Input
Amino acid sequence: MASGSEQLFDSLGHFGRFQACVYFASVFQAMSCGIHYLASVFMAVTPNFVCGIPGNVSSILFYNSSKASLEDIWTMWTSTENYIVAQLENGEIWELNQCSKSKREVSFDLAYEYKGNKSIFSCSDGFLYDVTKWKSTVVTQWDLVCDREWLAKLIQPTFMLGVLVGAVIFGDIADRLGRQRVMWFTSAGQFVFGITVAFTFDYYSFVIVRFLLAMVSSGYLVVAFVYVTEFVGIKARTWASMHVHAFFALGIMVVALVGFLVRTWWVYQIFLSIATLPFVLCCWMLPETPLWLLSQKRYEDAQKVINIMARWNKVSTPCKVSELCSVQQDDPGTDRTSGNATSSTKKHNILDLFCNWYIARRTITIWLVWFTGSLGYYVFSLSSVNLGGNEYLNLFLIGAVELPCYIIACIGMDKLGRRNTLIPFLILSALICVLIMFIPQDFNVLIILANMAGKFSIGVAFGLIYLYTAELYPTIVRSLAVGSGSMMCRVGSVVAPFCVYLRSVWIFLPLLLVGIMALLSGILTLMLPETLGKPLTNTLEEATEMGRKKENYSGKTPPADSGAALEKIEMFGQETVSTEK
Output
């Protein structure tokens, strides 16, 4: 007997015309999430700079080359240790460094080398920036250099902190208020806060608005993933869920394209935010998922959505809610919970992810995989920015390289299973980290290829963990589980930049840490149950039973009827197990 959820999709289609329209409308907005996550790559870039000149300049000298303007100097700038010699119209000669300037006491001859006495001053006249690539960035806008450089370095970590907070908050709200409402609010928030960022008046207002933008961007990505998962049947769930990440990668490629075309940061931010507008105008038409409606005992609303799905998918006789509920009444698992009078009024929270040993062990392992995936993804990405060449093309390729890894992940998940795909790629990424340590430093091509292979392998693991998490937990806490996992993911993304700083201790220390975490995650994943071809669960008892059955059949041949029927799980709760939120 099929579970209620799969009876619904067997009747209406696993990925019919209705699901396709809902899916592509929802994942289009995921592209905006990728855009905002990576926007600071160019928006907060620090160009070459020197102290401002205290007067009108008559001539400029860089080494033994005399230039008419600073624009000509920047093309020869190679190191932060460089300085510029400038002679003013009043005859004074100044040496301009990045964070200080020196006035020569003797100014008869204009020469680059000078051994005489100098008076050192701070950069009280501001800074001169290289505008050959970017006309304006937030760094040049608010002089986030020298003693204020740490403020520039906090831009991305504070954004990721907002992502962390948003993942938990909106994941929980979506379980209580519904997926569609949260998607509309967060998508509208992305547009409003995205435009507002471009018009912030100082650094602190910029960081605060970006923090709010991060919250809604993260909230949308988490809830949209659960939303499309609950609209798609088992036969199409793997590919549909994985390609949410493909649209995120397309957002990264859009950042590279817009960054190449627009070189003023606030105009660049406006163009990136406009990508959100089409979805904001139409997302109010998206329906709530019938799975969530049934879990809330809103049977009439659920039937309306089912009828709309049937009409779009050209199904003449749609299934009835009463039929779906009767499937659950035949489920012997409901007998175990029918006597639990308190479960109907229980408000679920993050503690439910640790309700027993099986679920707690599952949660700890899943959180570790989320953290490791994010840490490895960003450590490999930060290493790849030193590839040289055109930085816009590099970022475009960094986004493009994710597309084939998701295809490989989809094939692996469908053919081998979620767990059996996750484990090899986690261990492979650990082995690649070790391999890089043994490549000679002058073999640049091999180092680059190895880093890209590492990002590819960790990308496969990072991509499938969304779907695997959603399938490991029941409907009543599914958004919360994915949201808390995304929280651990963002902890990894916040830690990653600081992990890269450990290169000053030992050049391979960041890779060593990633390798250890990937190996540990791969080993612990061995204890998780496989979810390929299994219906989604509805209660914590059913999710626990899935883990127990995996252990009971470990090393044994399952009985002949142990397929979908053995793991039969209800999507729709009865009165005794539904949750008031």
